[in-house]
Amino acid sequence: MTDFEMLSKTTLYKAFSELGKRIFLPNGIFYWSDRAKKEAEIKATIGAAYALEKDFASAGESKWVPSYLEIVKNYVNKDIEKLVPYASVDGLQELRKLWKMWIIKKAAYQESEKKNYLTQYISDPIVTAGLTNALFIVLSLFLDKNEKIILPNKRWGNYDNIIKRLIGADIKSFDFFENDTLNLNGLGTAIDEISEDQEKILLLLNFPNNPTGFVPTVDEIKKLVNYIKKKQNELNIPFIIIIDDAYEPYIYTKNSMKHSIFYEFQQLEEEIIPIKLDAITKEMLLYGGRIGFITFGLKQTWVKNEDEVNRLKAELDNKLKGMIRSTISNCNRFYQNLVINLLENHKFEEIVRNRNNTVSLLKSRFEKINFELAKIRNDLFSIDPNGGGFFLFINLDPTKIKATEFADLLLSKYKVGVIPFENPQENVNGIRIAYCSVDIQDISELIKRINSAFQEY
């Protein structure tokens, strides 16, 4: 596939980087291997050792299986076919279908029209090696060297690693907050500046936010979506909204939106294209599983009928598979099968209810740490608005305290570990507290020690 007849007609294609336009998955090993599984009597395609199990395993049977170490099988005590063979480049097909159903259920749409539109006009999720890999793939598809993407000044540090150091692009930063709410004026200024040099706007959003724990209210979400609609109509260029949903389920305040902002953008008619990135890392509390997903919101105006929808999805899949095959080849089969088992054998409500045990624990810690911090009266610090996720952020007066020095003092003298964020050029100077990993019984002592450290300034 090299012509991309459907995809090339879309604004999505126009927003691709040079790499995004160039990359594709040729009919190579996996193509011929997949065909051989269906058509061949003798299969000599894939580079994986197969044999009769009895020829290499002491208790083996007379069946043709991928060769394995007996000590591995004894350790995991699982069907070796679910562990050893390569997975498809784009992920196990059953997992892709199940994760799409998971995304649709999370929308909780009551209106059939919205649900049907969501079902038809999103891509089938592509499986990646965790959310970080998903970020790299998507950012590489859209960012050329020296192009810019908009992010808030309070952001996960690994974004900078991927965007600036790996891809060679740049970040246009804006102050995240204005009067303790989402800074739409700052976002608008960033959009206007970038539109002078680029024929596309790239924006990366992450709610609940790492490092602040900020979650927009329902009203703030409406204002943000309407504001981006307004800017897109003014500029008439594609807006690519990359949504990092790592902490999507972890929301602790009543007036906050309870699901991803992806759903709001996906329903729009405008050329505002949301891309949802999520993973089993926090969603299923499988941190070491390293299975993530990329799901594109598509536009009804790009296609005329169902056949064209399917062709468009296939072409987009090919681009993504080209990226995966040329970097990591494919993803961990064992954890893909584990998630398939979870989603097939347990109802949506059961999984959510099970996870809510952890959400409730974290909500209690969220309430406790904010309660303890509210007792401190000190002009040297302020707390960013927070209502979800795993963290909160304490801003430090940069004229009196440097974040890295304060974190070092906390660690060396008070035996408290936090993460400093220090970037004077972007007006960032503070510490991130991961209360997700602190026992609620220790939170009072944690804040007491932080307050004691403040007294030294």
Task: Provide structural commentary.
The protein has 457 residues and is of the alpha+beta class. The protein has 3 domains: 7-26 and 88-345, Aspartate Aminotransferase, domain 2 (3-Layer(aba) Sandwich); 49-82, no CATH class; 350-454, Alpha-Beta Complex (Aspartate Aminotransferase, domain 1). 44% of the residues lie in helices and 14% in strands. It is built from 17 helices and 15 strands. It has helices at residues 11-14, 18-22, 29-39, 70-76, 93-107, 112-120, 130-142, 157-167, 184-195, 218-235, 262-266, 280-283, 306-325, 333-345, 348-374, 403-412, 440-454; strands spanning 50-52, 64-66, 126-128, 148-152, 170-174, 177-178, 181-182, 201-205, 239-244, 272-279, 292-296, 381-383, 392-396, 419-423, 428-433. It has a 5-stranded mixed β-sheet with strand order 3-11-10-9-8, sandwiched between helices. The protein has a 4-stranded antiparallel β-sheet with strand order 12-13-15-14, with helices on one face. A two-stranded antiparallel ribbon has the order 1-2. Helix 8 (157-167) links the parallel strand 4 and strand 5. Helix 5 crosses helix 14 and helix 9 (184-195) runs parallel beside helix 10. The longest helix is centred in the last third of the chain and has 27 residues, at 348-374. The model has no long low-confidence stretch (mean pLDDT 96).
